[in-house]
Specification:
alpha+beta, eight-stranded mixed beta sheet
Length: 216
């Protein structure tokens, strides 16, 4: 029998992580066409409304139902505006391990939202779902994402050489594929305990925002 994550929402001081809805489709399509997201993810480009609708209403729910993972739309608590997305995937229910990926809308960068949403998902995964390991993989040239991994307490475990295809702008304004290494990071429940202790039981997300204004 396949294990699955529950159909839930997670709240923080400023954010709500919840399932995608039909109303998110226009904002999702706009966000996914951002240059940094195009460069560092394997999302289709250009990312159309049809892509957004298929992801939000079919593929994302299917991830949870199949047991493969869970996808959260990340929204502002006060405005309900789409901040980004957090995606738990490559879930191994035997070892209780999953990989996490995230994107943040251009307008929301510099506010600490990426860190807040990833930490919220990690806390939930460890505390409520009793998982023992979370992985994060960052392209070697994506220094902002690497700094985020460090700030939330991840430990660098090594490099997967030539393991990812990123995109780079061409002189004519188009895009070309480039091969790059992947850095593998891990987060364990005790790592979060250490981060919590460093921040006296809480997190100051403004610190992350000031240090990392360009993270995706």
């Amino acid at each position: 029998m396949t294990s699955t994550f529950p159909d839930i929402s997670i709240s923080t001081d400023r954010l709500v992580l919840r399932p995608f809805e039909a109303g998110d489709v226009p904002a999702l399509a706009e966000m996914m066409n951002d240059e940094l997201i195009t460069a560092w993810t394997n999302a289709p480009h250009p990312y159309t409304t049809a892509h957004a609708r298929d992801w939000a209403l079919r593929r994302a729910p299917g991830e949870r139902i199949s047991g493969s993972g869970i996808v959260f739309a990340v929204t502002e608590f006060l405005t309900s505006r789409l901040v980004g997305s957090v995606y738990l995937h490559n879930t191994d229910w035997h070892t209780l391990c999953a990989e996490i990926s995230y994107v943040t809308a251009p307008w929301a960068r510099g506010e600490g939202y990426a860190c807040e949403s990833v930490l919220a998902a990690a806390e939930w995964l460890f505390r409520d779902q009793k998982f023992e390991r979370l992985e994060l993989r960052t392209a070697a040239d994506n220094t902002a994402a690497q700094q985020v991994a460090q700030k939330i307490g991840c430990i660098s475990e090594g490099v997967l050489r030539n393991a990812w295809i990123a995109r780079s702008r061409t002189e004519d304004g188009g895009w070309t594929d480039i091969r790059t290494d992947l850095i593998v990071w891990s987060l364990l429940p005790e790592d979060l305990d250490e981060v919590r202790e460093q921040h006296n039981g809480g997190y100051d997300y403004s610190d992350y925002a000031a240090a990392l204004p360009d993270w995706r």
